[in-house]
Specification:
The complex is a heterotrimer of chains A (351), B (262) and C (302).
Chain A: E1 3-12, E2 15-25, E3 30-34, H1 41-49, E4 56-61, E5 64-65, H2 71-74, E6 76-79, H3 91-100, H4 110-123, H5 139-152, E7 157-161, H6 169-186, E8 189-194, H7 197-203, E9 206-211, E10 214-219, H8 221-226, H9 231-236, E11 241-248, E12 251-254, E13 257-258, E14 269-275, E15 280-283, E16 291-299, E17 304-311, E18 318-325, E19 335-340, E20 343-347
Helix pairs in contact in A: 3-4, 3-5, 4-5
Chain B: H1 2-25, H2 28-35, H3 38-71, H4 77-83, H5 86-89, H6 92-103, H7 110-113, H8 124-148, H9 152-160, H10 165-194, H11 197-200, H12 213-222, H13 226-258
Helix pairs in contact in B: 1-13, 3-8, 3-10, 6-8, 8-10, 9-10, 10-13, 12-13
Chain C: H1 9-14, H2 19-27, H3 39-68, H4 73-81, H5 83-116, H6 122-134, H7 137-148, H8 155-160, H9 169-195, H10 198-205, H11 210-221, H12 223-239, H13 242-248, H14 258-267, H15 271-296
Classes of the chains: A alpha+beta (351), B mainly alpha (262), C mainly alpha (302).
């Protein structure tokens, strides 16, 4: 099912949670809404579900206005961060709930319901726990039950609100992979909300990065990682090094010195240079048009080391972390040059 | 700590022990004879039956009241929330005479019911009304915290699965508050069974008609028939202990269901 | 796993709706919380609740004051200032004050013991504390008669030494203490349990004695709960009827507390004076509730 979100705005008192948000989701896509808390991602998800209504804008399911329907009418499957399983019902009864809640006319026979529930429990590999109660299950198991319950009603879209947020790291990783595989199997249009960029990049077909109620960028994981449109995206996805620079006469300058870098169309004035730790190479400090700094600390085990380098003067110091190979000879206090192989220049406001 | 134990023993244990000691003085046969006498049986039946009925009414209406207080916004809501505590705080004798006056034929409500042939004061119906009054806060106050803390997500989940409001109430909300409801019911029942002050003014106090068990105990005491008084008291105490035990069990059940202590 | 829905809830809900209404609904956006009940349900429940509370609680309360002034201010004032009433008031105050102080002291120590220590029989102690709650006040009075009445356990001994407990102040006091004992303890226990023993342990590790720790650390932490407990203990003590009725002897001017005096007046067909005295106790109840509401904000909830 296609979802079309147009100019959606939502305000809570004087706080604008969503500001003219536009997004088109293709049928069968697995989309991640990624952003820090307060970015509006959960609000957007809840609006699509029907738990909240926007102050302005449209939401359409397959071209039809979804906002005239209540959440029950929209046939969405929602999975909550804290599972929201019914404690007084067994796993089986939880999953069967949606099917049994239908009006008599449209309810399947008990036998058919049983069949469907069992098939779903098979799908989430929890058939052996069917008679247990939620309190007796681990967090990961509970979330899988919640997923099975949501899928039981054959939803047109699956919505997940930080589904793995309450689980510990190891379980989170497992379930992430499992969700991806599940999606490949059932290909229901799915939207999940997360603040974990690793999760978003690993699982989603497309990542929608949100900040301050706006969509900063929507693209494949590769696109948002390699070609971030704004500083917010760059900073949120992967690691970032930020160096304050000045654009003057077409040159990018740090500490008054031109660096020989491309200003990438940013206007003159204060700007920011963004790069990834592994996209900067440490080179000899001599030479023209070079970014220079002093090694402050070297740490890390494994194939690459992390080198903390201080740029600029004592009073206006910028600390960055750069990756260097084990084999490269470095000492604390050494003056080095830095060559950004891949970088982005953003104006001060992030654009 | 030894001091507390001593104090507790003095104030609570010993007096109660005296009760059972006195009861033990009676032979089993005599005991049974007392509690199965017509007047005593009637008083016990009346006390328990009316208390049960009153607690049931409080269960139903208390649920409505607590639902309105927790789920809805309406003018004066906070005032009504405070009003629920009045039967708790008001001395029983004050409640007793106020209710009697209200439901007597010349009273505000009594005068409205008299033309319909309904007499409340000085009949078992009056006792019932008094027992509803004093039991009112129990269901409300016991259920209130549970309802307030009910996870919003549970209802959202049920709604997203296509359940109607009524289905959500019956299959998601109600099961979560049932232990609290029953505890409130048991508390109201326990209180009603032993109630004295609010009831003796409005009851007719006619033996075998509108005489409650606590009153019968008092009468026997005044007649210096200690044995009879203690026998009846013993029966009531046993019933109270059973109810207390039931309440504790329900509280533990509720903790298991919702993770909350009642 | 099929993606095409067998059952389309939105479509189903459109059945039976005319074209006009469908159009109206299509252009109308419903902005409703999933937890909201339909309007008619809401207003029915609110009306029934208000009616129920109004009839069963508000009316009797108003009636107390209405009847108190039914025969005019002069009768009201006279009822409150005559000798018997004043004696009843004095007795009630004395009983209440003593009960509150004693229950406060021992309630504190009991709550402290229960909340801060682990010991055998702790559960038994807790049940004991709850006991007076579940016992009929008449039975509470009865047990003291059984102990100290003429035919009671200590009866002969007391008579021989000319000590009057039943039908005198001590009996009334004992019965009141029994009935009001749980109020203070029950307020303190959950709070003390929640606060744990860390602060006390810190104090002791810094060298404070047990008493000092109690006074300087434990007490201030529970002051609002204690005050609240004292308040309701007092209200209950002043209003206690059943237990006191059994042990008091109803001697006018001597062993009649205010509730008993009210009974005496009412049974003596002096309704207005009875309600006048009752209005004082009703006022006390209202004040207690108001102060309770204020204090509730100060007591941290769990």
């Amino acid at each position: 099912m296609r979802i079309s979100i147009q100019n959606v705005t939502k305000r809570f008192d004087d706080f604008t949670a969503l500001d003219q948000v536009k997004l088109d989701i293709r049928s069968g896509e697995l989309i991640a809404l990624l952003g820090p808390s307060g970015s509006g991602k959960t609000t957007l998800l809840r609006i699509v579900a029907g738990f909240e209504w926007p102050d302005e804008g449209e939401v359409q399911f397959d071209g039809e206005d979804a906002l005239t329907h209540s959440v029950g009418e929209r046939n969405v499957g929602f999975v909550f961060q804290h599972y929201a399983l019914f404690r007084h019902m067994s796993v089986f009864e939880n999953v069967a709930f949606g099917l049994r809640a239908r009006p008599r006319r449209h309810r399947h026979s008990e036998a058919e319901i049983r069949r469907r529930v069992e098939r779903l429990l098979d799908l989430v590999q929890l058939k052996w726990l069917a008679e247990r109660y939620p309190q007796q299950l681990s967090g990961g198991q509970r979330q899988r039950v919640a997923l099975a319950r949501a899928l039981a009603i054959e939803p047109r879209v699956l919505l997940l609100d930080e589904p793995f947020g309450a689980l510990d790291a190891k379980v989170r990783k497992e379930l992430r992979r499992w969700l991806r595989n599940l999606h490949t199997e059932i290909s229901v249009t799915s939207i999940f909300v997360t603040h974990d960029q690793e999760e978003a990049l690993e699982v989603a077909d497309r990542v929608v990065v949100m900040d301050k109620g706006r969509i900063q960028q929507a693209g494949t994981p590769q696109q948002v990682y390699d070609h971030p449109h704004t500083s917010a995206v760059h900073e949120f996805i992967g690691e970032s090094i930020v160096v304050p620079v000045v654009i003057e006469q077409g040159d990018v300058r740090f500490g008054g010195e031109p660096l020989g870098l491309d200003p990438q169309g940013v206007a003159s004035g204060d700007a920011l240079l963004f790069a990834r730790p592994h996209d900067i190479t440490i080179v000899p400090s001599s030479g023209e048009q070079r970014l220079r700094g002093v090694v402050k600390r070297i740490h890390g085990i494994g194939p690459a080391r992390r080198v903390e380098i201080a740029l600029g003067s004592e009073t206006a110091e910028t600390l960055i972390e750069v990756d260097a190979l084990r084999t490269q000879p470095l000492r604390v206090g050494q003056l080095v040059g830095l060559r950004p192989d891949q970088y982005r220049i953003f104006s001060k406001d992030g654009g | 700590m030894g001091v507390s134990l001593l104090w507790l023993s003095l104030i609570v244990l010993i007096p109660l022990a005296a009760l059972f000691a006195k009861t033990a003085e009676l032979s089993a046969a005599h005991f049974i004879e007392i509690i199965t006498s017509r007047r005593v049986l009637h008083a016990l039946q009346l006390s328990f039956a009316l208390s049960f009925a009153a607690a049931a009414v409080n269960l139903v209406f208390g649920t409505l009241v607590v639902w309105a207080l927790v789920r809805y916004r309406f003018p004066g809501r906070r005032l009504f929330d405070a009003i629920v505590d009045i039967p708790f705080a008001l001395p029983t004798a004050v409640a007793g005479i106020a209710l009697t006056n209200l439901y007597a034929e010349s009273g505000w409500i009594g005068s409205l019911l008299a033309p319909l042939g309904i007499q409340v004061a000085f009949t078992p119906l009056g006792i019932f009304v008094a027992l509803v009054f004093i039991g009112l806060p129990f269901v409300v106050r016991t259920v209130q915290p549970v309802l307030e803390d009910l996870e919003k997500e549970l209802e959202e989940a049920a709604a997203s699965l296509g359940a109607s409001r009524w289905t959500i109430f019956c299959r998601v909300v109600l099961p979560s508050i049932v232990p609290a409801l029953l505890t409130g019911f048991a508390l109201a029942l326990a209180r009603a069974v032993g109630e004295y002050g609010s009831v003796i003014f409005i009851a007719g106090n006619l033996p075998n008609v509108s005489e409650i068990a606590p009153l019968l105990i008092v009468i026997r005491l005044q007649e210096f028939r200690y044995a009879d008084a203690t026998a009846i008291a013993a029966v009531m105490l046993v019933a109270s202990f059973l109810l207390l035990f039931l309440i504790n069990t329900l509280q533990r059940w509720s903790e298991g269901r919702t993770g909350k202590r009642l | 796993m099929s993606v095409v829905p067998l059952y389309d809830p939105a479509a189903e809900m459109e059945i039976g709706v005319t074209a006009a209404t469908a159009h109206a609904r299509a252009t109308q956006r419903r902005k409703v919380d999933v937890r909201d009940d339909p309007a008619w349900v809401r207003w029915t429940i609110i009306s029934v609740s208000i009616a129920f509370l109004g009839i069963f609680v508000v009316l009797p309360l108003i009636n107390v004051f209405a009847q108190a002034f039914a025969k005019g201010i002069a009768v009201y004032v006279d009822a409150l200032t005559n000798a018997e009433t004043l004696a009843a008031i004095r007795l009630t105050l004395a009983v209440a004050a003593t009960s509150v102080v004693l229950n406060g002291l021992f309630g504190l120590t009991a709550a402290w013991a229960i909340a801060k220590f682990e010991f055998r029989g702790k559960n038994f102690l807790i049940t004991l504390v709850d006991l007076p709650f579940s016992v009929s006040p008449v039975i509470a009075g009865l047990v003291f008669v059984l102990l100290f009445g003429l035919q009671g356990l200590f009866g002969p001994w007391l008579a021989a030494h000319d000590v009057k407990i039943i039908f005198a102040f001590p009996g009334i006091l004992l019965a009141t203490i029994f009935v009001t004992f749980p109020f203070i303890v029950r307020e303190l226990i959950p709070l003390m349990q929640e606060q744990g023993t860390e602060e006390e342990e810190a104090a002791v590790s810094l060298g404070a004695s047990g008493l000092r720790t109690f006074v300087r650390v434990t007490l201030p932490n529970v002051k609002w709960a204690l005050l609240y407990g004292v308040l309701i203990c007092n209200a209950r003590a002043m209003g206690e009827f059943g237990a006191v009725s059994v042990v008091s002897g109803h001697i006018r001017g001597e062993t009649n507390t205010m509730p008993l005096h009210i009974e005496a007046l009412y049974e003596g067909y002096q309704a207005a004076p009875a309600f006048a005295v009752a209005s004082l106790l009703a006022l006390l109840a209202l004040v207690t509730l108001i102060v309770k509401a204020v204090l509730e904000k100060r007591i941290p909830k769990d």
